[in-house]
Write a structure and sequence with these properties.
Oligomer: heterodimer
Helix content of chain A: 40-55%
Strand content of chain B: under 5%
Shape of chain B: globular
Distance between the termini of chain B: 16 Å
Mean pLDDT of chain A: 94
Structural class of chain A: alpha/beta
Number of strands of chain A: 7
Order of helices and strands of chain B: HHH
Largest sheet of chain B: none
Strand content of chain A: 15-25%
CATH topology of chain B: Non-ribosomal Peptide Synthetase Peptidyl Carrier Protein, Chain A
Distance between the termini of chain A: 29 Å
Low-confidence stretches of chain A: none
Number of helices of chain A: 7
Mean pLDDT of chain B: 89
Chain lengths: 238, 98
């Protein structure tokens, strides 16, 4: 895909109702991909090459059905971007277990199940690209984000192990780790916290969806078949 | 139902063995060892077989089964031990609506 055209290619993006997932959907629709998106609610996105599923990514039968029906309808599945995620910005002492469970169900279990089910389709085709979403909150060890950062650390670990398990089948698994981006996910974070976080970055600005898309573009390239198990953080965080 | 599943499993093993050329898998029957012990498939080939079987069961019988199992790698209790045990496992999963 040297010309970055997605014509004829099919991608699943999770969490497409708003935020980065919605922006990524537009980005890849503009480049010719067929995008199959999902969220818990309906989507306003209308496009001849966009399909929407109302799916809870932590619900195994729903995920299995979505992935298999997608593969059946289009006869292929080239890429998955596991974007769906929820955050919990709270001191650990004030965080109920139910919140931690919910964060892990969506972020970790959801990512695991889409990787597992998509890999089955991709392994038969002997090619595919899985892209997961990490966060700079993990390497920065951000206070107040214990559950969120830990769930994303789990995603990094999943990415590294799945990369090895799927490599014999020519399926790559990578992750992108965004800095704060102006979405609902950080709406409740105090501005001074965001400022401090941006101050710790090498490049001191809020991230944008196009920054995420740029890294995903790289992972999706045919030439990136030797790139797997990597987490790329934005903003100069390491 | 079981006869049909057995045929699907035997056919999938046979097709997989076109690449592997294992003499013991040439004519798979109920007792043919698939995984565990000295004989049978390595783990990557087993993964390929399971992926292929999920597709075949979905295409031919219309059941979206997930054949993951936490006893998968157990030598004594793995449902993937033999063609027969794998057939029983799939029939059970289909019955459970998994």
């Amino acid at each position: 895909m040297s010309d970055m055209s997605g014509k004829g290619r099919v991608m699943i993006i999770t969490g497409t109702r708003k935020g980065i997932g919605l922006d990524l959907s537009h980005h890849y629709l503009d480049r010719g991909w067929t995008v199959v998106g999902c969220s818990r609610g309906e989507s306003d996105l209308k496009h001849e090459r966009y399909r929407h599923w109302c799916v809870d990514v932590a619900d195994e039968p729903e995920v299995v059905k979505m992935v298999r029906d997608t593969a059946k309808e289009f006869g292929r599945l080239d890429a998955v971007v596991n974007n769906a995620g929820i955050a919990s910005m709270n001191h650990a002492v004030l965080t109920p277990l139910s919140t931690v469970r919910k964060v892990f169900e969506t972020n970790v279990f959801g990512t695991f199940m889409f990787c597992r089910e998509a890999a089955k389709v991709m392994m038969r085709a002997k090619k595919g690209r899985l892209v997961n979403c990490a966060t700079v909150a993990t390497p920065l060890k951000l206070e107040g984000e214990a559950a969120y950062a830990a769930s994303k650390a789990a995603i990094e670990s999943l990415t590294e192990v799945l990369a090895r398990e799927f490599a014999p089948f020519h399926v790559t698994v990578n992750a992108v780790g965004p800095t704060p981006i102006a979405t609902d996910l950080i709406r409740s974070v105090p501005p001074e916290k965001i400022e401090a976080l941006i101050g710790s970055q090498a490049v001191k600005r809020l991230g944008e969806s196009r920054d995420v898309a740029n890294v995903v573009d790289f992972f999706l390239r045919d030439e990136s078949d030797f790139v797997t198990g990597q987490t790329v953080y934005l903003g100069g965080i390491s | 139902m079981r006869e049909r599943m057995l045929e699907i499993v035997r056919s999938a093993v046979h097709d997989l063995n076109e690449e592997l050329n294992y003499p013991e898998l040439e004519s798979p029957n109920e007792a043919t060892t698939l995984h565990g012990g000295e004989e049978g498939l390595d783990s990557l080939s087993l993964v390929s077989l399971i992926v292929d079987l999920e597709g075949r069961v979905s295409d031919e019988v219309g059941h979206a089964v997930v054949l993951a199992d936490e006893k998968a790698m157990s030598e004594r209790n793995s449902p993937y031990r033999t063609v027969g045990s794998l057939t029983d496992f799939i029939v059970t999963r289909c019955g459970a609506g998994a």
